[in-house]
Amino acid sequence: MLSNLAARDVETLIHPYTNLATFRETGSLVLERGHGVWVYDSDGRPYLEGMAGLWCTALGYSNEELVEAAREQMSRLPFTHLFSGRSHDPAIELAETLKELMPVPTSKIFFTSSGSEANDTQVKLTWYLNNALGRPTKKKIICHRKGYHGVTVATASMTGLPANHADWDLPLPGFLHTGCPHHYRFGEAGETEGAFAARLADELDALIQREGPDTVAAFVAEPILGAGGAIVPPAGYYAGIQAVLERYDVRFIADEVICGFGRLGTWFGAEAMGMRPDSLTFAKALTSGYMPLGGISIDEPLYREMVSQSAKLGTFGHGTTYSGHPVACAVALKTIAIYRRDGIVEGVAAKAPHFQARLSALADHPIVGEARGVGLIGGIEIVACKRTKRQYDPKAGVAARCVAFAQAEGLIVRFLAGDRIAVCPPLVIAPAEIDTLFDRLGRALDRTRAWIA
Ligand code: PLP
């Protein structure tokens, strides 16, 4: 029975990242099907999916080749695990393909089912590595304020957002946060982006010194901070950060869950943002969001220690039932084959100037303080005063209201803390659809301005 879905939803489901107090009034948007960059609600109304689902449906909806890859694997071998040396061809082939693609020296691939599990694995392996190396105190993990790395106990601790900490008894001890590389919001009056980047590198250096370099194990960072507000760090920022990490022998991990697989017009965000990490975390666009799959790259020095730990302890004591699920791996293989065959990453680079021009033009809107992005991702910040960058009272929910107006215009975008709005459409979006997206977003901003007045 498909009638009254929204009413039944309110009575039965707990929704992630939803205000459960107001949800009974605001209700749900029940989506039923999708095609290309469009999704349709249960009344048949179309929406341009300006968020690629949750930053993931890179190839858009209804891609029959992905459906067929899943169907074929589902009927041949729907499940086998990778425990105790058990294996299957999609996982082996996908690991080989990913090793070729990784922008950093990679010895092996470890699969998970989500970005959270993958980052959780990064933390555990960092601890495991330093125990193997006889550095039992070198365990602290540093991330960005406003960074997002997931929701498990460890990855919510890594995440630098208040909603993930308040009343959750997090972050756990040993998880630290350093300055958010957002010049528009945190740069001082008259400070250039270069000086701001240098100041943040100094801040990280001082934090590591204060904590003691022999206690700091890893720094984990997104190339562009997604859920924190689609924030673009200043040019050269990561070069300064890397110099600090090298000074103190701190492992550098790039969280590519959003930026991986073409979002910035390069295969990985690390390439676009000048990062040289030791390891990458990936998920989302690996399967174009069609199946849950994530993973991490394992460098040779880490692999060697993992082998010697197994020799000592008797096993590698980590992994989940669905690590490297065969149907998910088959879909990922097909997704990457399409990225390669159709030149999807090059296509992003070609479309990016148009997308970024339309995005930056929004900065002229009377209630927009910043509009900035890279590739096919961008963030805008709504402000009460453009000159002073003063924000509206968070309780007014201005960005949330703008997103609701966008939805009424037939556009899905996402509001984030600090009155920011993220735009992150499927990578297959056509130039005319980019125009539709920004035309509708512009009208939503106009309606928000009228609503405020
Ligand atoms: N890392 C980043 C950068 C993310 O954006 C996300 C999710 O949005 C995660 C990790 C967590 O991934 P998941 O929601 O699949 O657990």
From TrEMBL:
Keyword hit for Transferase: yes
SUPFAM superfamilies membership: PLP-dependent transferases (SSF53383)
Taxonomic superkingdom: Bacteria
Gene Ontology molecular-function annotations: adenosylmethionine-8-amino-7-oxononanoate transaminase activity; pyridoxal phosphate binding
InterPro entries for this protein: Aminotrans_3, PyrdxlP-dep_Trfase, PyrdxlP-dep_Trfase_major, PyrdxlP-dep_Trfase_small
Annotated keywords: Aminotransferase, Pyridoxal phosphate, Pyruvate, Transferase
Gene3D superfamilies reported in the protein's UniProt record: Aspartate Aminotransferase, domain 1 (3.90.1150.10), Type I PLP-dependent aspartate aminotransferase-like (Major domain) (3.40.640.10)
GO biological process, one term: gamma-aminobutyric acid metabolic process
Keyword Chaperone recorded: no
Pfam families xrefs: Aminotran_3 (PF00202)
Family to which the UniProt record says this protein belongs: Belongs to the class-III pyridoxal-phosphate-dependent aminotransferase family.
NCBIfam families associated with the record: PRK06105.1
Protein name: 4-aminobutyrate---pyruvate transaminase
Organism this protein belongs to: Methylobacterium gossipiicola
